[in-house]
Amino acid sequence: MTITNILVCGIGGQGVMTATEILAEAALSLGYDVKKTEVAGMSQRGGVVTSHLRFGPQVLSPQIMPGDADLLVGFEAAEALRWSHMLRPGGVALVNLGRLVPPVVNIGLYEYPDDPIAQMRALGLEVHAFDASAMALELGNIRLGNTVMLGAMADRLTFPADVLLNAVLARFGARKPQLVDINRQAFERGRQAVAARVEEPANA
Amino acid sequence: MGASLPGSVVASRLFLSGNEAVALAVRDAGCRVAAAYPGTPSTEILEELAKYPELYAEWSVNEKVSLEVALGASMVGARAFCAMKHVGLNVASDALMTMTVTGTEGGLVIAVADDVGMSSSQNEQDSRYWGRFAHVPVYEPADAQEAYDMTRAAFALSEAHRCPVILRLTTRICHVKGRVQPREREAHEPAGFAKDARRWVMVPGNAKPRLPLMHQRDDALRAEAETSEWNTLYEGSDRRLGFVASGPAFMHVREAFPDAPVLKLGLSHPLPIERARQLATMADRVLVVEETEPLVETELRAAGIACFGKEVLPRIGELAPDVLRPAVAGMFGEPVPKAVHAALQAVFPRPPTMCVACPHLGIYYTLAQLRNINISGDIGCYSLGAGQPWNALDTCISMGASMGVALGMDKGRGEADAKKSVVAVIGDSTFLHMGMQGLLDIVWNRGNVTVLLLDNRAVGMTGGQENPGTGRDIHGEDAPRIDFARLCEALGVKKERIRVLDPYQLPVLFKALREETKIPEPSVIITDRPCVLIDHYEATQPYKVIADKCTGCGNCIDVGCPAIHVTRRATEVKPSGKEVELAFVRIETSACTGCGLCVQPCAPEAIVHAAPEHPVNFLHKNV
Hints:
Strand order of the largest sheet of chain A: 2-3-1-4-5-6
Largest interface: A-B, 66 and 69 residues
Number of strands of chain B: 22
Shape of chain A: globular
Number of helices of chain B: 19
Number of strands of chain A: 6
Oligomer: heterodimer
CATH superfamily of chain A: Pyruvate-ferredoxin oxidoreductase, PFOR, domain III
CATH class of the largest domain in chain B: Alpha Beta
CATH superfamily of the largest domain in chain B: Thiamin diphosphate (ThDP)-binding fold, Pyr/PP domains
Number of helices of chain A: 8
Order of helices and strands of chain A: EHEEEHEHHEHHHH
CATH topology of chain A: Pyruvate-ferredoxin Oxidoreductase, domain 3
Helix content of chain A: 25-40%
CATH architecture of the largest domain in chain B: 3-Layer(aba) Sandwich
Strand content of chain B: 15-25%
Strand order of the largest sheet of chain B: 3-2-4-5-7-6-12
Structural class of chain B: alpha/beta
Largest sheet of chain A: 6 strands, mixed
Helix content of chain B: 25-40%
Shape of chain B: globular
Distance between the termini of chain B: 55 Å
């Protein structure tokens, strides 16, 4: 029984749940059994959000256990570090370098890690890091960061990248056709960011 | 069989959350009336139901009213439904404990969602107790498909036995999406109200003869549970350990121990004891996996079935595979497998925060400035006032408790608190839910309490639902709007002790609080800025910080707005020799909505209007 486990993490309002929903739609379109679960009780208030996606022939428990994630998708750098223990040995992390600093850090109670990506690599993890937030802003809207992250995942899945791209475009095509083209571009930017495998400066 | 599923399956599968699946099943069952008060993780059920024009849906003022509305509908023969979070059933329990005596006519299903793991609640309680306490059957779905199927079955069971039925959900059902195959819809026409005082008027003389009927019903339900299709035995090949499990825990057991025999409890109360006895013959040992209290375990032991339970499993939180595997290894004296994955990394906590420009920021900034006050709080976004940087909320217990707790603090205080003022903080919806009775008590019993009534025109924490103070109903249509000032006056607060203020005006708020806390009688300060997440809120021109002007005093940080970020820290030695920590700031202009709260405490006038760098995006207010 082969189940694919993808853990998407970030903070409330970043589009973590929407991205996972689109991934789920892609997996469903291939006929997989799919379960998706979130811990997001007060997430709309800037708290931590994780979304678990599991798909395969038959999925029982919706939760990914520590050490079982094939793919860790971090919408925020420190959140990716927080959930590093979820990756299986040999699993891959795709991380947005964009930082969202919470009030507890601004007040001075805690420190934001100097280099979360380097910390993850020191754990022996394969990490692909890129500034999805900056790419989204270059394309004109921070909300495109969501699609950039989906693009980054596209060549790391057990199914062809086009299946995911179609799920992205179908979602926007149905509601906002004028956004189809810009989302296609955002998807491609994310895809290239991982494909290029440039050893970018981690502390961007 | 009352509980068998109606109709054939319909066309295509859907991908639904447990909450969406319950809502669809309620609609498909021909339910006529659905009511709820919002509460995580149950809220989306009624939000979904409100989309179906073929049934009546309402937000009720509290859970007790929602259950009474459902009962009334059932009395006239309609199928009826209500939903609530676990603590909601505490509120509704008075009605439940007597409607189980009257019984029901139209099928009546109560969905109660336990927050196992406590992602968004003040306690973790096991609602399955209500089944035992109130003599009503309990269904426990294990995924979205079962949430759909069992909701349909619950209506049928309710009508077969003429009693309310509890559908016990948990966060891990409500908020998990899975594939759902719906079934054919039913039509259900109410039979009409049959007047019968001995049935519906629960005075002692009428209620007493009904008690034996309730116990007979228990017996019938017990027999039904033994043969119910929802209680299933999985034989399994590894007979060292058999499991009894229900709800999401069943999925976790199957995931972790795919070859073990399992008794899956779907209709979990009354407990099918004979099925459990059968399982016990199929395995060397039996482990009961239930979230969260040891109910099944206790009942099995009472029936003479040896089993393990809470002596090896935790009594709190979810029983996921990573909890089950080491517990079972421990039972067999096997070494617990060492983790192969990376260690848990220490990263700063990221607790929920108030939104950028939240009107509550002004309230807590001000409360944090006041000395010698005890602040009795309540349930809602404003519970976050207990956190950093404000630390300005001292209690949070249950819906509306801020009122009674404040009065008790006032009446109970001795010398230690004699010079302190008592302030109660409560939101609009919580006040209407259960707070206004407490205010009435304060007034009637001459309490010395200053009430801050934060009217942000929404049930904020659950996502901005309507309440009687918003002037809109569940569909967003115009509805009668309660006037909070007049309501407080009607409850007996003196007119001159009621003020309506803008919480963005910090000096006005500070002055009002100072004055009212000094007057030894009940007063109410109503603040009237809408929640920034609802569409009544209008953003204005955002602000920025002129870096050269910022002195690093940190006053603006004390507001607690998530759009204010520290760019640099420094230490300065004052002429007095005292060391002062400085924090220079910038404002995330793309998130700022121009509320102006941070501008007011800024001495050097370093905060000025900025042209927006990017369009303001409400979803990104937290950044």
